[in-house]
Amino acid sequence: MPKIVELLTDTFGKNAVLPRAQAGTRVASNWRQNENLDCLALLLPETTDEVSKMLQICHEHNQPVVPHGGLTGVVGGTVTRPDEIALSLERMNQVEEINVQNKTVTVQAGVVLQHLQQVLAENGLLFPLDLGAKGSCMIGGNISSNAGGLQALRYGVMRNLVLGLEVVLADGTVLSSMNKMVKNNAGYDLKHLFIGSEGTLGVVTRAVLKVEDLPVSRSTAFVGLNSFEKATQFLQYSMKHLKNELSSFELLWQDYYSLMTSPPSPFSPVLPQTYPFYVLMETRGQDAGDGAVFETFLENALTSGLIDDASIAQTQQELDWFWGIRENVELIFSVHQPVFLFDVSLAISDMEAYIEKIKTDLQNIWADLHFYAFGHMGDGNLHLFVSCGHADHSTRHQVEDIVYQPLRQIGGSITGEHGIGLEKKAWLHLSRTAEEIQLMQTLKKALDPKGILNPGKIFLLTSL
Amino acid sequence: MPKIVELLTDTFGKNAVLPRAQAGTRVASNWRQNENLDCLALLLPETTDEVSKMLQICHEHNQPVVPHGGLTGVVGGTVTRPDEIALSLERMNQVEEINVQNKTVTVQAGVVLQHLQQVLAENGLLFPLDLGAKGSCMIGGNISSNAGGLQALRYGVMRNLVLGLEVVLADGTVLSSMNKMVKNNAGYDLKHLFIGSEGTLGVVTRAVLKVEDLPVSRSTAFVGLNSFEKATQFLQYSMKHLKNELSSFELLWQDYYSLMTSPPSPFSPVLPQTYPFYVLMETRGQDAGDGAVFETFLENALTSGLIDDASIAQTQQELDWFWGIRENVELIFSVHQPVFLFDVSLAISDMEAYIEKIKTDLQNIWADLHFYAFGHMGDGNLHLFVSCGHADHSTRHQVEDIVYQPLRQIGGSITGEHGIGLEKKAWLHLSRTAEEIQLMQTLKKALDPKGILNPGKIFLLTSL
């Protein structure tokens, strides 16, 4: 057993330190159940104090540490090299305090998102972050990756939902910044350093989150549209007139909608497969009359020609059907292999031309290409699935080049919500200037001079 | 003329570099028109490139620089020592681009807030930051101080309204991070470092801001309440049922309301002066029927006993009257001298007891004390005015001690929106842990190793 693992085991016990063989019985990622964890050891602390002491020892021994949450990330942000130690927050899974009056909740980093949603719902509260991976992803990972999801349009991304943060720095220093206030201008707002920095600047251990009143109404509709321009106008109109109750506005290109509503998909079409664009929209509200208001709103939009077709979910079964069409992305992987997944961000006014261009460019090279686009239109964030029959490094690079290069010119981003991790670091320079990357590295060096926290992630050059 | 001023004059011309005597004809602060600027020179760049070159020269010569905007801050964040150079962004005052479809505006740092509001209104858009100082304060200052104001409840503070930022670092490096997207997870989100750091980490030169549709309806009411508990319940009720259109919820304690509605105040009372608490509330919406909905909402609240009295502004004149009572704080300074101003942040559930405690503690020392409290209840942010007849250093310290010390225990902040500047740096440790202050100083050192940017602000110890 390596010396550092021995030392950690002696200090924290066998329960908290799984050596390589034992760690290797677990999966490396929620998405690749056949790949096992390969690391020097897996640490399972139960308290912030333990996290602090573990990092102190690793720091002293220049031992790289990779923070782990629910392992639902898709960019390789939690991948370990064989000589790295993984540190999972899964045992720090307590919802510590729910404050109904001040609308805050205090949680440990290992709380699973769906569990938090359920506990809050029992108290009449809503934690509005909502992701496909909610059954596995953990709050610490949501914070470290600045998760977005299905309701960011109304409630913001994870960054907007965090009031306070406790973080353990590379050398074991506990930075307790558990602010519960909406407004606090006492010095620098340090939490933003750690939100979205993918575990490279500190390990999130606890957080204070903002919560909302649990909505009593939920209105959901599929809308068919004959042009992208109409989708844009309808979004503007919805944001203006739905009294800020619009929580989701998901755009589906026809190819995606057709795939998701044809066998072998379990879902039949809600609307005919003939529209070039579909919107899945939802409002959440506090009044019994909200459903009727929503119905009138859609009727008016239909009558005035703003939209071309619409169907409102009337039962829980229909709700599951509607959302299934949007969310059942696993289907793509069962129909096509291999598949490349993208997560681009761009101005709504650039979306249609961008999708047309890259689809054409890809088809010019791979005639039998499968290309699916959909996403959080209201947030300017689209997901793309590309399958061209190959997955070798050179093909992957060629596809990425076609998808990412046009973003530079239109000021888009290579990632709206998934982050950089390992998989996108070669392209970071397309979305960030040399000065920005330089400053990021200055911060990394200032906070983690030995470079032990999640090394090799985000930055192409790790020679700090 | 000092060598550095000569060098700057030779490089940028007399128009852009005002030497001490000329700079000294200008006021040092918008609030103290009788105090003149005392500094080595005042720089007036017209472009980011000029700001960059000016800072490059100052950096090379270890010359301290104090960034200036509209000079409306109240904590001494822009005070210059005689050997420091002031750098005003006032000539960089262009609104560069308004994008109606993507709801963004690109501005230079010297744009005055009210001017921006007006230009946007002409385009059917709203920039929702709203402050008493809007006629003078500049966007760069709003960003550097993370301004809050009267509509943060609904639209957030300045931090929530900034999408992209251009900043010049201490050594003259231009950090262009002019992101226009709502979601961008490509590496660290650097803008948050500079928002609210009071010009100590960089000089803001340009920004991309989020804008909203200009509301068509505005409903404003004064409400009388017989207890703090009722105010709390009414706030919760309003946030739940006003369809997220509630933009202001300002709480006034009786003493403040009475002062502002009695001679020599120009304003008569809207409601009798007999209620212990008053709320000035406002909703903004997009529909013609909003006013009627608001009226019904208030009628129901009155009928059910949730509130004790209410009056809705029916004309522009009444609107000015209502808001005048809340905003005409200058009256306090004309009636009482000297006056200490505070800006504390705390949980709503702690407010009543906190105000009672410090008022009693102050009165126990100064029997003839004048004490006024009001603020942004919905944001958990209160402003206090204390006049005890003296303004010497020791009295000031004693008053501050009474106001600030209780905040530590209840997890409050010594500043919700005004910032630290010079005036509160002795108390920063009450709202931030030693580890937080240490990390702030680590960041300061990493970004400005020579300590030339706004030295002596925020931190008690400047020996970096």
CATH class of the largest domain in chain A: Alpha Beta
Integer count of domains of chain A: 4
Structural class of chain A: alpha+beta
Mean pLDDT of chain A equals 96
Number of strands of chain A: 20
Largest interface, C-beta closer than 8 angstroms, per-chain residues: A-B, 84 and 84 residues
> What share of residues of chain A is helical?
25-40%
Shape of chain A: globular
Oligomeric category:
homodimer
* Strand portion of chain A: 15-25%
Radius of gyration of CA atoms of chain A, rounded to a whole number: 23 Å
Secondary-structure topology with pairs:
Two copies of one chain form a homodimer.
Chain A: H1 3-12, E1 17-19, H2 20-23, E2 27-29, E3 32-36, E4 41-43, H3 48-60, E5 65-68, E6 85-88, E7 95-99, E8 104-108, H4 113-121, E9 125-126, H5 139-144, H6 152-155, H7 158-161, E10 162-168, E11 174-177, H8 191-194, E12 203-210, E13 212-213, E14 217-225, H9 228-241, E15 246-253, H10 254-260, E16 277-285, H11 290-303, E17 309-312, H12 316-327, H13 330-335, E18 340-345, H14 348-365, E19 370-376, E20 381-387, H15 393-409, H16 428-431, H17 434-447
Parallel strand pairs in A: 4-6, 5-6
Antiparallel strand pairs in A: 1-4, 2-3, 7-8, 8-12, 9-13, 10-11, 10-12, 14-16, 14-17, 15-16, 15-19, 18-20, 19-20
Helix pairs in contact in A: 1-3, 14-15
